[in-house]
Amino acid sequence: MSKALIIFGSTTGNTEAMSDLIQKTLDENDMETEIKNVIDASISDLNGGHDLILLGCPAYGDDEVELQEDFEDFYQNMAGLDLGGKKFAVFAPGDSSYEHFCGTVDLLEEEISGMDGKIVADGLKIDGDPDDAVDEIKEWSASLVKTI
Description:
By secondary structure, the chain is an alpha/beta fold. The chain has four helices and eight strands, in the order E-H-E-E-E-E-H-E-H-E-E-H. It has a single domain (3-145), classed as 3-Layer(aba) Sandwich (Rossmann fold), CATH 3.40.50.
């Protein structure tokens, strides 16, 4: 059975809710999933025994992309890692009225690609409340199973 790891940061609960729904969908599609709040994760998790790693981080800031505060240290510690072709997907809730709508998705994908990680799906960017995008989140999550 394929294994996935979901690492998320969440302040308002939206990214956590997305993470829970993604985990449930992956589990329903015969993928063994582990979920960690970023404050409980370590950089070594990125090179663990998972077939797929998902990173969820909301974005803040008007003038530039700002990572969720709990995710900031994790992101900084990623610098210089060799991800050796590991498979990744990135997701975030956001607000399209901001200049950098879900900019953390783009930021994380760029960082992962620069460390020889493989982005296996377009990042999932949800505008507003994830409860209003359940079908979109489930569809995206189910599509990830085919990338393993």
